[in-house]
Amino acid sequence: xxxxxxxxxxxxxxxxxxxxxxxxxxxxxxxxxxxxxxxxxxxxxxxxxxxxxxxxxxxxxxxxxxxxxxxxxxxxxxxxxxxxxxxxxxxxxxxxxxxxxxxxxxxxxxxxxxxxxxxxxxxxxxxxxxxxxxxxxxxxxxxxxxxxxxxxxxxxxxxxxxxxxx
Length: 166
Hints:
By secondary structure, the protein is mainly beta. The chain is 11% helix and 46% strand. It has one helix spanning 3-21, and strands spanning 37-42, 52-59, 62-68, 71-81, 87-102, 111-118, 128-132, 135-137, 147-155, 158-161. The strands form 2 sheets. Strands 1, 4, 5, 8, 9 and 10 form a 6-stranded mixed sheet that branches. Strands 3-2-6-7 form a 4-stranded antiparallel sheet, with no helix packed on it. The termini are far apart.
């Protein structure tokens, strides 16, 4: 006789617990994975001198290296928003070249990146090495956890850590 009331109370308690576990509206974290990688941007002024790159990254006693594929770089150009609120952007070539070396793990520990390569005529480029710490960001708020990025820029002067965006 009391079972329907008990069932209703348990169901209400369960629903309340599930709703409160979701947090306040608008605070959901995106379900995306972080890429564990080193990204390399060859500056627009230096990119005509670079035909191929080999990258070695070492962190926490582990190294990974590989020839990397160079792709044309681009800049995002705001294409505006519709009246319904859908926004878009287009990619505009910017003269840079980009590459990525995938890693097994990426931590906040210092890492060393060494880049070597070849010019279009086949001559060796200067070997460049940089020691730096990956950057930490909270692009979706601290409640969603940190995102690490390891990004470097190669230019005539050498290898530099990519400035934080934002």
